[in-house]
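[Discussion] Sanity-checking designs against the backbone

I'm trying to build intuition for which residues belong where. Below is a C-alpha cell string of 73 positions. I'd appreciate it if someone posts a full sequence so I can compare it with mine line by line.
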C-alpha cells in the first residue's frame, strides 16, 4: 500500500503513475448555450421552488449554471 502511494511497484521501480489510460489530447465536450426560452424556464422553475439539482438534471447543465442564471436577475 505504501509503495503504491509513493508511485513505486513492488520491485521498487517507478510505476506509470496511473497514466496508462490517459488521453494525450482530450477533446472538449460540446456545450450548446442555453436559449433565452430555456433561461426563462430555469428562472420560472426556481421561482416556483424547484431545487437547483432537479433543474440542472432536467436541462442537462451544472448546478452552478442554474445558480448563475437564477441569481443574476
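Best answer:
Here's mine. Compare freely.
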Amino acid at each position: 500500500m505504501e509503495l503504491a502511494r509513493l508511485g513505486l511497484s513492488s520491485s521498487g521501480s517507478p510505476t506509470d503513475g496511473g497514466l496508462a489510460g490517459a488521453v494525450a489530447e482530450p477533446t472538449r465536450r460540446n456545450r450548446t448555450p442555453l436559449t433565452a426560452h430555456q433561461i426563462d424556464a430555469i428562472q420560472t422553475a426556481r421561482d416556483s421552488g424547484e431545487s437547483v439539482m432537479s433543474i440542472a438534471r432536467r436541462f442537462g447543465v451544472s448546478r452552478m449554471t442554474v445558480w448563475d442564471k437564477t441569481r443574476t436577475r
